[in-house]
Write a structure and sequence with these properties.
Layout lengths: L2 H18 L20 H8 L8 E5 L3 E7 L13 E8 L6 H4 L7 E4 L5 E5 L4 E8 L2 E9 L14 H4 L10 H8 L9 E5 L4 E5 L10
Antiparallel strand pairs: 1-2, 2-3, 3-7, 4-5, 5-6, 6-7, 8-9
Length: 215
């Protein structure tokens, strides 16, 4: 590669990392500009420079990561109005954020392995979960999930099965989108899956092929 092109490539990677990760020595991350259960679509558009939102679930393919945003339907377990941001997840396109650079002290995190033997670091008090992969004897962050911290639990209202599932879009929503919406994951990889919420058991049938409701 010619020298001038190599310099440009390195510069692009550096800019890419800075745009997503710490902006200063105080570690100010871009998602900290969003206040869960208070911020809304207008805040998402302003902070992430996107044009529109879809409620209850939006996905944005950006340069450095894919951003997933869950919005309240106004009839779910969170006692907030429709359109408020409930949770976010960042699926990083590059392994360029080391775990040790993200935070020094993980004593408040629980650590477990998922189905693919990656490490999952969860901090309920802060409302953050990290999907971590090991490569070249180093731990790298693959995905960052932001959810309401424990001190937000007072906002949880009784779950109404008749109203709470209006955010589900049959024939349009895939499994990843559905599980992000209900904030539950199942180890069952089959087509027939049960999700046990606090009050009810919900059975879901997934199609192996794309569905169409056009007749």
């Amino acid at each position: 590669m010619p020298k001038e092109k190599l310099i440009i490539a390195i510069f692009c990677v550096i800019v890419l990392a800075i745009s997503v990760y710490p902006q200063s020595s105080e570690k100010e991350y871009i998602w900290q500009k969003i206040v869960l259960l208070k911020s809304d679509c207008e805040d998402i558009k302003r902070v992430f420079k996107v044009k529109e939102c879809e409620i209850p679930f939006s996905r944005y393919r950006l340069t450095a990561y894919t951003l997933y945003v869950n919005f309240s339907t106004g009839m779910d377990k969170w006692n907030v109005e429709r359109g408020k941001v409930v949770s976010m997840a960042f699926s990083l396109n590059f392994l360029n954020l080391k775990l040790k650079d993200f935070e020094r002290d993980f004593s408040d995190y629980t650590i477990r392995s998922n189905d693919t033997l990656d490490l999952v670091y969860t901090n309920e008090k802060k409302g953050i979960e990290l999907l971590v992969v090991e490569k070249s004897k180093e731990k790298w962050i693959r995905e960052i999930s932001i959810f309401p911290a424990k001190d937000c639990e007072k906002k949880i209202c009784p779950f109404d099965i008749e109203e709470g599932w209006k955010g589900v879009l049959p024939l349009k929503m895939n499994r990843v989108e559905f599980e992000r919406l209900i904030q539950l994951k199942s180890k069952n990889k089959g087509n027939f899956v049960d999700y046990e919420t606090k009050n009810v058991l919900v059975s879901v049938v997934y199609s192996e092929e794309p569905c169409s409701n056009d007749n």
